[in-house]
## 1
Amino acid sequence: MFRLNNDSTYLMPAHFGGYAFDPSYKATQRATMLSVSFETDRAELERYIPEELELRAPEVQVSMTQLTEINWLSGGHYNLVLVSVPARFTGKKGHVDAAYPLVVWENRTAPILTGREQTGVPKIFADIEDLHIYRPHYATSVSYEGNTFLSMTFEAGGSITGKDLEQTKVQLRSLDLIGWRYIPKVGAPGADLSQFIYFPQWIEVEKAYMGKGTLQWTELSPMQNPRQHQIISALASLPVKKNIQSVLAEGEVVLDTTQARVLE
Amino acid sequence: MFRLNNDSTYLMPAHFGGYAFDPSYKATQRATMLSVSFETDRAELERYIPEELELRAPEVQVSMTQLTEINWLSGGHYNLVLVSVPARFTGKKGHVDAAYPLVVWENRTAPILTGREQTGVPKIFADIEDLHIYRPHYATSVSYEGNTFLSMTFEAGGSITGKDLEQTKVQLRSLDLIGWRYIPKVGAPGADLSQFIYFPQWIEVEKAYMGKGTLQWTELSPMQNPRQHQIISALASLPVKKNIQSVLAEGEVVLDTTQARVLE
Amino acid sequence: MFRLNNDSTYLMPAHFGGYAFDPSYKATQRATMLSVSFETDRAELERYIPEELELRAPEVQVSMTQLTEINWLSGGHYNLVLVSVPARFTGKKGHVDAAYPLVVWENRTAPILTGREQTGVPKIFADIEDLHIYRPHYATSVSYEGNTFLSMTFEAGGSITGKDLEQTKVQLRSLDLIGWRYIPKVGAPGADLSQFIYFPQWIEVEKAYMGKGTLQWTELSPMQNPRQHQIISALASLPVKKNIQSVLAEGEVVLDTTQARVLE
Amino acid sequence: MFRLNNDSTYLMPAHFGGYAFDPSYKATQRATMLSVSFETDRAELERYIPEELELRAPEVQVSMTQLTEINWLSGGHYNLVLVSVPARFTGKKGHVDAAYPLVVWENRTAPILTGREQTGVPKIFADIEDLHIYRPHYATSVSYEGNTFLSMTFEAGGSITGKDLEQTKVQLRSLDLIGWRYIPKVGAPGADLSQFIYFPQWIEVEKAYMGKGTLQWTELSPMQNPRQHQIISALASLPVKKNIQSVLAEGEVVLDTTQARVLE
C-alpha cells in the first residue's frame, strides 16, 4: 500500500509519489514581459480587495509574460496575464508589501495547479497568443473557447540604456505576490482553508523598452465564458483615470517557491 | 472592501464573488463513454492505493468519456480519461464502496480545478482527441504537448438490447468516486489538508455496445512530460492478466456535487 | 525514380503516391448545421461576385456545420463556416444554378487543401468552436489566432415534424457549389488556372428546428488577422435588410467529388 | 461585379481582392533551426524522386524551424519541419541545384496555402511543438490529431565562433528549393498543372551550435492519420547508413518569393 513520506511535498494524485522538499530549490525561466499600468477609482477597486489587506495605491497593473526554458517544466514554456494591485498585509510581526493578484490567466494547466494549491495565486485558464512582433509593434490577444476578452498592444520607443536601465532594473525587479489560498468545505458553504501567503519572486531585467501600451477589454456572455464572465466584467468596468506606464522587458524570472510562507 | 458571504461557496479568486450553496443543485451532461477493463497483479496495483483504502479487486478500468451539453459550463464540452480501481473506505460509521481514481486526465482546465479543490479527484491536463468513428471502429489518442502516451481503440459488436440493456444500465450506473483531497503545507513538507471524500455520480445509459477494446501506453521521458511521466510509467507497467470487458455507452451523466462528503 | 500513374489522381506531395480515380466514390459524413440567412443590398453584394456569374438574389447564407464520422478522414471530424450566395453560371450548354461560396472557414487543413485544389472552394483557416448547447440555446464563435471575428447564436423553437419536415428536407437538400479555382502564375501577376467548377453535394436531413439566429461580426486589424481582415470587413459591412430564415438541421452529408466538372 | 486586376496576384478567394505584384518584395522572419542529416540508401530514396530530377547525393536533411516576427504575417509566427534531399534539375538553359522537399509539415495553414499554390512546396499540416530548451538539451515533437509521429532531440556542444562560424554561415546559407506544383484535373485522373519551380531563399546565420541530434519516427495507422500515414511510413523506412551533421542555428530567413520561376 502507498504511504506518504514525511520529508516530501505532494500534489494530487499523491499516491504516485512526491518531491523531496528542498529549501534551496528555485524555479527559473526566461521571460518577455509586456506591462501596462493605470490609475483607477479607489472605491471601485476596493470592492475586490479582501479586508485583510490594504490597497497601497488605486493602481492596476496588467502584464502579459511569455515564459520559456522553464526549469521545473524541463524546458517547457507558457504564457500568463497577471492583473494585480499594490497591497499590504499587516500581521502580528509587522507588515508585508507585495502585489495582490486579482486574477492570473495562464495557457498551461500545470502551473495553474501549483500556483493555486501551493501558494494561493488565483490562476485560471485562457488562450494567450504568443506576442506578434512587427517592430516596433507588439500585440497579443487573450480568449476563452474562441471568445476574445482582452487585446493588448504596445508600440516600442527606444531601448532603455545606461543609468535609466539600471533604474528600470531596480524598479521592475520585485514580482513578490500575496496569494489568498481558499479551499472550500465539502458539502457545505465556507472554507476548509483560507490563508494569505507571501510568495517571493523577481526578475533580473536584461533589456527594457518604454512605449505606448493599450488594453481593450470585451465583456462576454455567460454562455461565452460561464465561469469567468463576471471577472472580466469587473475588470472591464474599472475606470482608467490615468495611464501610468507601459514597458516591455526581457530577462530571467526566479520564483523562490520554498520560501513562500503563510502570513499571520 | 470585499467580504465573504457565509452562505456561499467560493473558488479562487474568491474576491469576485462566489455561488450560493444550493443542496438541490446537480451537474448534468450528455456522455459517450468508452470503457476498457482488465485484471492486473494485486501487489503491483496496491503500490498506488493509500493505506486508508482497501482494494476490492485487482482490476483497472480505463474509460474515455466525451461530455457535451454540460449545464454548469452553459452548454460547453470536454473529454476525460479516468483510470480507476474498485475500493472501499471503512470508517467509524461503516464502509463506502466506490471507484478510486488513480488519475483523471481532462482537456479542459475549469473542471480540473473544481474536481481537485472541491472533491479531491486527481485531475491533470492532457489533450484528448474526440472519438474518431469509422463504424464499427472507434479510436482516440491522449497526448501531452505533442507526445502521445495512450491510444485507445474499440471495435463495436452489435447493440445491446432488451433485457441485456436493462442489465447493462444497472451494471454501469454507478460512477461514485472516492477522492483524496491533498493540499500541501506552504514552505514545508507535509499537508495542510488530507481527506478522503465520497462523491456520488451516475450515468443513465440509453444505448450500449459490447465490443473489443485495446489500450496502448507509450512511456514518455521527463523532457516530454516533466510532471506526469512517472504516472504514465506506473500505469504502463501494470501487467494485463486478463481483459474483463469493453463497452461503449451513451447517456446522461449526473454529478451530485453538493452531496459529496468527507469520509471519517 | 518516381513516375506518375495515368489512372490516379494526386495531391502534393505527388511522389509518395496518389489515389486510383474511382467515379463511384463519394465522401460521406454526419452533419449538424446551423444556418442563418439574410437579405442584403444587391450592389454591395455584387462587388464580390465575378462577372462570369449572375447573382440570383441579394441573399447571404451563413452556415456553421459540425462534421463527424467523415469517411475520407477515417472517421475524423471538423467544423466549417460557409458564407454563400445564390448564383448562376451560364455557358455554352445552358446554365447551372448553385450556391457561390464567398468564403469557407474550416478548422482542419486537410479538407481546406482538397477543397481549394480539387474544386476551387475558397477555404481558409479559422478556429471554430464546437456548438455549445444549453437547450434551447446554441452558440459558436469563430476566431483567428485568439481574435474573435464572428459569433453565432441560435434559440431553437419546436422541432419540425410531419409534412413540414418533408418540405424542409427538400428545401435544404441541395448543397451544390460553384467554385472558382484560381492558381496564380509564378513570378508574375495573373493566373495559370482560372476555372469555374460545379461541385454537387447534398444533405439528407433527419431532424430540423426553426428558431431565432443571430450573427455578430467583429472587424479585425491587419495585425490581428493579416491575411483575412479585408474579407471580414467586407462581410461585416453588408447591410442586413431582412432576416430570412434560421434553421438547425442534422443529417448525412454526401459530396459527389468525382462528379465535379469545369463549367464552360 | 468583381473584375481581376491585371497587375495583381491573387489567392482564393480572389473576389475580395489581390496584392499588387511587386518584384522587390521579400518575405523576412527570425528563425531558430534545428537540422539533422543522414546518409541513406540511394535506391530506397530514389523511389520518391521524380524522373525530372537527379538525386545529387543519397542524403536526407530533416530540419525543424521556429519562425517569428514574420513580415507577411504582420509579426506572426509558425513552426515547420522540412524533409529534403539535394537535387538537380537539368533543362534547356542548363541545370539548377537546390534542395527538393519530400514533404514540409507546418502548424499554420496560411503559409501552407501560399507555399503549395504559389511555388509547389508540398506543405501539409501537423502540430509542431515549440522547442523545449533545457540547456544543453532541446526537444520537439510532431504529431497529428494527438498521434506523435516524429520526435527530435538535440544536445548542444559549444557555440561555433570565429572562422568556423564564418564557414558555417556560408555552408548553411542557401535554403533554395525546387517545388513540384501539381494541380489535379477536375472529374478525371491526371493534372491540369504539373511544373517544377525554383524558389530562392536563404538564412543569414547569426549563432550556431554543433551537437548530437536524434530523430525518432513512429508509424501511424490510417485511422490515426488518414492522409499522411504512407508518407510517414516511407520516411520511417529509409535506412540510416550514417549520421552526417546536427546543427542548431539562429538568424534571419529571407524568401525571395517573386523571383521564383518555372523550370524548363
Note: Chain C has a mean pLDDT of 97.
## 2
Amino acid sequence: MTEPRWLSESEQEVWRAYQTATKLVGESLDRQLQRDSGMPTTYYEILVALSEATGRELRMSELAEFTKSSRSRLSHAIARLEENGWVTRRSCPTDKRGAFASLTEDGMGVVRAAAPGHVNEVRTVLFDGLSTDQVKQLGEISAAIVAQASKGCPSDPCDE
Amino acid sequence: MTEPRWLSESEQEVWRAYQTATKLVGESLDRQLQRDSGMPTTYYEILVALSEATGRELRMSELAEFTKSSRSRLSHAIARLEENGWVTRRSCPTDKRGAFASLTEDGMGVVRAAAPGHVNEVRTVLFDGLSTDQVKQLGEISAAIVAQASKGCPSDPCDE
C-alpha cells in the first residue's frame, strides 16, 4: 500500500460529525418505526419500494437494489413479511431470472398507516434542523457521494 | 396525530439521495474493514475510541456513548474483542458505576494496522467526491442534524 492519505484535522471533524449525524438519524427512525409500527426500517423500506412499483410487484433482484440489501438479508426479510401476510412471493416458470415479491392489500394498509409517523420523524430529525440552503446542499452532496461511491462498484451489487 | 407533514417532491429527492449516499458509504467501509482487517465497523470504532482515550481505557458507559451503541450490543462486541486478546475488561470494586474496557498492546497494533486502509476508504468514498465548499457544508449540516436529533434524546441513551 502507498503512503496513507490521512485526514486533516478539519476533515476528521467533518467525518466524526457525519458519523454521529447519520447514526442519530438512523436510530431515531428505527426507534419510531419499531415503536409506532412494530417493524424495523428495512421492512418498511421493502414495503414502500413495492407500494411504488407498477402492479405493486418487483423482482427480488430489483428489490435488493432499491433497498441496497444483500440477497440473503432480503430473503430473510421477505419471509417474515410473507408470514405477516403483507407480501406474497411467486416464481415465474418461464423466466429463470428469479422470483417476484408483491405487496398484498394488508401490506398496502400497513404502509398507509406507517407513512405519516415515519415522514413526520424524517422531518423532525433531519429537515427541521436545516435551512433551505442546507437542504439543497445536502441533496447535492448526497448525489456527489453516490456518484463517487458507485465508481468502484460492480454492476450487480447483490451477493448470492 | 395531527395532519402529516408530508415531504415536498424536492425534499423527497434529497431524502432518497441521503439514504442512498449514507448506505453506500457505510457498506463500502464495512466491506473494506471486513476484507482488509477481518472485523466489522463497530469493532473498529470501539478499538479507535479506546486508542484515543487517556490510558487507552474507558468506562463501558462512555464507550457506549462514543460509539452510539446499546449496552447489550457493546457487551457482545467487547466479549469478542476480549477473546481476540485486543481488549481487557475490569470492574472497579470501589466504583459501582461499572466496568472499564482497556485496549491491549495487541489491540493497539490492530488499530495501527487497520487505520491506513480505513482512512483511505473514507477519503475515496466520501471526501474525494466533494469540493472544499461541500466538505465544509457537510460539516455544518451534520452538526445541525446532531443538534436537532439530540433535542428529543434522554441524557443517557444507554439502555440496559
Note: The longest strand of chain A covers residues 87-91.
## 3
Amino acid sequence: MHESDPAETHDGPHGYISNGYISNKDAYLKRLRRIEGQARGLQGMVTDDKYCIDILTQISAMTSALESVALGLLDDHLNHCVLHAAMAGGAEAEAKLQEASAAIARLVRS
Amino acid sequence: MHESDPAETHDGPHGYISNGYISNKDAYLKRLRRIEGQARGLQGMVTDDKYCIDILTQISAMTSALESVALGLLDDHLNHCVLHAAMAGGAEAEAKLQEASAAIARLVRS
Amino acid sequence: MHESDPAETHDGPHGYISNGYISNKDAYLKRLRRIEGQARGLQGMVTDDKYCIDILTQISAMTSALESVALGLLDDHLNHCVLHAAMAGGAEAEAKLQEASAAIARLVRS
Amino acid sequence: MHESDPAETHDGPHGYISNGYISNKDAYLKRLRRIEGQARGLQGMVTDDKYCIDILTQISAMTSALESVALGLLDDHLNHCVLHAAMAGGAEAEAKLQEASAAIARLVRS
C-alpha cells in the first residue's frame, strides 16, 4: 500500500513529485486493489460452488480490468521512457522500442 | 476463504466428496490465491516505481493464469452441467448450451 | 467453391439445403468471402504504403470477423456433434467434449 | 535495413523498391497472400462440411498469422513514424504516440 508521505519520499533535487513514469499512481493502485478483491471474490465463489457461468463472467471482467491497466501503463511507458530514449536516439532508442514491442506482443498473445 | 472442515461439508448422503461440479476445488483455490498474490505484487511494483516492462510482464503472466483457470472451469462445466442437460435434452439442453456459448464468446473476446 | 447441385446432394424431406452440422452455410461462406477480400485489401494497402495505423485497424477488424465466424461454428458444433455425443453418452461424449475444450482453449489463446 | 539512397531507389525500373516505413514489403505480401489462401481454404472446408474442429483449428492458425503480421507492422511503425515524431517532439510526437496506443489497444482487445 502507498502510505508514505509523498513530500518525504518523492521530492528529488529538482523538486518534482514522483520521479517515476507512472502518470497516476493512486488511480492504478485503486484499480489493482479492486482486481485483488476480484481474485478474492473468485475464491469465495469457488468455495461456495457458485454457478460456473457466473464465475466465468467474473473472470472475463477481471481479465478486461487487467488488460486495461496494462494498456494504461504501456501508454505511460511509451510517453515517458520510450519518448525520452527516442529523443536521445541511437542504440538506446532502438533497444527501448524493441523491448516495448516484445511487451506488446506478450499482451496481444496473452 | 476455505475454512470449513471438508469432512463436515462435502460428504453427502451418497458418500462422494464435493457435491459441486468443480472437479478439484483445492487446486482452483490454490491457483486463485496465487493470482490474488500477483495482484498484490503488482501494487507493490507500482508503488515502488518498478520498471514498466517488468510490470507488464507480470500482468501478462497473471492474465494467462486467469485464462487457464477459466478454461479449466469451463471444461468442468461442459463435462457436468452441459453434459447432464444434454442427456436430459429439450429446452434445458438448448438453454445450457446457449449460456455456455455466450461465456465462451466473452472469454475469447476479453 | 460451392458447385455441387444442391437438389442432388442436400435436399432433405423438409427441403432445406445442407446435411451437415453447419446451421447456415451460405451465411458463413459470405462472411469468409468478405474476410478473403479483406486479406486481399491488406495486400493492396501494403503495396501502396498506406498508413500503418489504417492497416492495423483493418487487421483488427479482420481478426474480429474471424473470431466471430469461429464462435458461430463452435456454437453449431456444440449444438450438433457435442449434443448428440452427449445424448449417446459414454466415452464418445467424453471424447467430443475434450476435443471441444481443446478447440476453445486454442481460440481463447490465439 | 533501409540503406539505399532514396533518390536512387524509389523509382526503379522494376517498380519502386519502397519509400515507406514497411521494412520488408515482400515478406508481408507473402504472408498476407498465405492468409488470403487460408480464407479461401476455409470456404472449401465449410462447403465440404469438413469437421468443425478442423475448421476451428484453421481459424486459430489464421488469427495467429494475422496477429503476427500486425505485430510486425506495429514494430515497423514504432521504429519509423513514431521514432521520427518523437525526435521532432512536441504535439506531433504526442499525437503519434496516442494513435499508436489506440492501435495497440485495438489489437489487444480484438
Note: Chain D touches chain A at residues 67, 70-71, 74-75, 78-79, 82-83, 86-87, 89, 93-94, 97, 100-101, 104-105, 107-109 (CB under 8 Å).
